[in-house]
Specification:
Layout: E1 12-16, H1 21-32, E2 36-41, H2 44-56, E3 60-65, H3 71-85, E4 90-93, H4 112-140, E5 143-148, H5 151-154, H6 163-184, E6 189-196, E7 199-200, H7 203-209, H8 214-222, E8 230-231, H9 232-243, E9 254-257
Helix pairs in contact: 1-2, 1-9, 3-4, 4-6
The structure holds nicotinamide-adenine-dinucleotide (NAD).
The site of nicotinamide-adenine-dinucleotide has 30 residues, from helix 1 and helix 7.
Length: 264
């Protein structure tokens, strides 16, 4: 980071799915830049570990339970954060994924429940979070929202698992992001997305990656111009930029961070 830029001194940053992977990397990076971080997740053990690591580095963070697929859970988490720290300045909607659809079937193999579970986690999660924080941001005429979508939402998913519900739910997150960016621009609220490519993040993602044979891994990496998977920190850096004051004239935009994959 450039000294004096991308600072978040005293800003209250809420990150969902922040116990591990991209969310945890973002939590640590925001803290390094002066933010107070609400580390929210369904895995409280790992969330507390992330908070301890932030505290050990001299930062301020607190863990909160939040299942983004539940309206009640999202509402009560944001209420708790505002009770503790007074406001939300930055909201990062990071929790998402293919939960409940861990097979590689085609459309005829998907149940309603599998489709619903993934849409709930990705699209409804974004909807619940935005609906809860935007009124307070409109009132103070300031706010930043970053939605973590996916390359799958920009083009298609080539993952082994959960392609059918994942790709449309990640694309829909970006549709919501643009619609809300339009609504909120006059209130000085910037709403943007980041679309990660293939990222080495959590153990869950690593286990999925390791179901590939060495030949399959090599074929996948050949489709990435950079020739490798990205890191959680490389996505976190994009999230921080989108949430920064330096990006005050950027809204309704999705930043692709994928080693050049979209060019292939
Ligand atoms: N890793 C990749 O290659 C990749 C690529 C594109 C997009 N993404 C997106 O990045 C985001 C983060 O993914 P990741 O790879 O860091 O990790 P991940 O998807 O494995 O999970 C990150 C965290 O989310 C938490 N989580 C799971 N379900 C939740 C829920 N319902 N509510 C709240 N938290 C929940 C988990 O406990 C975990 O700590 C996701 O939205 C994912 O779709 C990841």
């Amino acid at each position: 980071m450039v000294a004096g830029m991308f600072r978040f001194d005293g800003k209250v940053v809420v990150i969902t799915g922040a116990a591990a992977g991209i969310g945890a990397a973002a939590a640590k990076m925001f803290s390094d830049q002066g933010a107070v971080v609400a580390v929210t997740d369904v895995n409280m053990e790992l969330a507390e570990k992330t908070v301890s690591e932030i505290a050990a580095a001299g930062g301020k963070a607190k863990a909160y339970y939040c299942d983004v697929s539940s309206r009640e859970s999202v509402d009560s988490m944001i209420d708790e954060v505002t009770a503790d720290f007074g406001t939300v300045d930055v909201m990062v909607d990071n929790a998402g994924g293919t939960h409940g659809a861990v097979h590689s079937g085609n459309i005829e193999e998907y149940t309603d429940e599998e489709f619903d579970g993934v849409v709930k986690r990705n699209l409804y999660g974004a909807f619940y979070l935005c609906r809860k924080v935007i009124p307070m941001m409109k009132e103070k005429r300031a706010g930043k929202i970053v939605i973590v979508s996916s390359g799958a939402g920009r083009t298609t998913s080539r993952s082994e698992f959960g392609r059918i519900p994942y790709a449309p739910s990640k694309a829909a997150q970006l549709g919501l992001m643009r619609q809300l960016a339009l609504e909120c621009a006059p209130f000085n609220i910037q709403i943007n997305g980041v679309a990660p490519g293939l990222i080495k993040s959590t153990q869950y993602i690593e286990d999925n990656w390791n179901t590939n044979t060495p030949e399959q891994k090599e074929a996948t990496l050949k489709k990435i111009p950079a020739g490798r998977r990205g890191t959680s920190e490389e996505i976190a850096a994009g999230i921080l930029f989108m949430a920064s004051e330096e990006a005050s004239y950027v809204t309704g935009h999705c930043l692709d961070i994928n080693g050049g994959s979209l060019m292939m």
